[in-house]
Amino acid sequence: MSDIHSQLLEDGLLLGRFPLCHLLLMCDANYPWFILVPNRDNISEIHQLSADDQSQLLKESSLLAESLLESFQGDKMNIAALGNIVPQLHIHYVVRYQNDPAWPAPIWGKLPAKLYTEENLSDVLLKFNELKLTDFEYEKNN
What we know:
- By secondary structure, the chain is α+β, with helices and mostly antiparallel strands.
- The chain has one domain: HIT-like (HIT family, subunit A, 2-Layer Sandwich).
- The protein is 27% helix and 22% strand.
- The protein is globular, with a radius of gyration of 14 Å.
- The two termini are 21 Å apart.
């Protein structure tokens, strides 16, 4: 089992895990923003995963993207694997709205992170916990 990079844990809240990936909520209330982190050591790129892991990542990614877009009623799902600062492979899932503060531009560097209030964090977690994610184990503190 690999560890999650400390920067990801500092910037996000661990929600649980799929068979391959950990799932975090990014601590930025500007957008519904989630991060998948494959539970593999020394992997920085998708092509470094085994063929089976690549297939599993695609399943988890597709399920997550579809579920988030539907639950949060977004206009667009942005998915990106950048890894310029954190070398551990991680994939961002950002639900976008035509009226969000960065639309239609990319979110990176557009606005400072907006901390969740207790109320809006509770709202996001409630929506997330209502998702029907198969093979997902919720974090006990959630």
